[in-house]
Amino acid sequence: MLRGGFNFADGEDTPFGLSGAPAKSIVLVGQAGAASWPHFLRWRESQSQAIANPLDTWSREVIGALANDFGARAVSPSDRPYLPFQQWAMRADGLRPSPLGILMHPQYGLWHAYRGALLFEDEIALQEARDVIHLCDACIDKPCLKSCPVDAYSAVGFAHGACLTHVRGAGGAPCRTGGCLDRNACPYGTAYRYPATAQAFHMAAFARP
Predict the structure, then answer these.
(1) What is the model's pLDDT at position 49?
(2) Is the pLDDT of residue 129 over 90?
(3) CA geometry: angle at 147 spanning 112 and 203, to 5°?
(4) What separation in angstroms does the CA of 193 have from each of 40, 50, 57, 148?
(5) Distances in Å between the alpha carbon of 57 and those of 16, 34, 44, 64, 105?
(6) β-strand partners of 42
């Protein structure tokens, strides 16, 4: 699904478009909830199990085909050198980060993602991002910071090493099978929560050596 977009300002340092000229407009593409998960699984059944990053590969195929249809350059969050996708997303969708770092959406909560973007060398008409309620401001209890057994998320940031060690260990079984306990504790957007199989897929990728 389209996830908003914007036109780059004059003089702004921008990525290049399809021909190598500076891009003038960007449209982000991604998902909300689990609607895309069955489509990915069907594609996965027909692919080699040796693909290292199947979700990235599938996303590039889908968004790349869309880019070909519209004469745009497709880029991905995992492209190197990394592009500022989170900054682009905040600018396009008007969102702000949650305490977990994931952008909080007023409808989808934490259950959404940006899988790629289309870069256009011509300026296109795009609706400006509206001001949205940041639900984290109204959340007093902050259960997203109280559910992790190793306090991976706190006011000082993400304790990556502690989280990874826990997820890989015997005590991390609930995280491996059902997803991040802090993320699942968030009370917003629960109707869009990813199914356990999708969360387990992401946690397996995170814990992979």
Answers:
(1) 87
(2) no
(3) 50
(4) 17, 28, 23, 18
(5) 22, 18, 10, 10, 26
(6) none
What's the CA gap between 61 and 55, in Å, rounded? 10
Neighbours of 167 (CB within 10 A): 20
Q: What is the pLDDT of residues 133-162, one digit of tens each?
A: 999 999 999 999 999 999 999 888 999 999
Q: Name which of 44, 66, 131, 67 is nearest 94 in CA terms.
A: 131
Q: In whole angstroms, how far apart are CA 55 and each of 77, 144, 151, 162, 201?
A: 12, 26, 28, 26, 10
Structure tokens at 191: 């109707």
Write down the residue that tokens 């969360």 correspond to. 199
Q: 133-136, long-range: CB within 8 Å, 24+ apart, which pairs?
A: 133/106, 134/95, 134/96, 134/104, 135/104, 135/106, 135/109, 135/188, 136/96, 136/98, 136/99, 136/104
Pairing of strands 112-120, 96-97: unpaired
Tally: H helices and E strands in the chain? 8, 8
Residue 18 phi, psi dihedral angles, 5° rounding: -65, -40
Distance, C-alpha 37 to centroid of its chain: 14
For residue 55, the one-letter residue type is: L
- Residue corresponding to tokens 């914007």: 6
Q: Which two tokens stand for residue 136?
A: 């984290």
Whether 128 has a pLDDT exceeding 90, the answer reads no
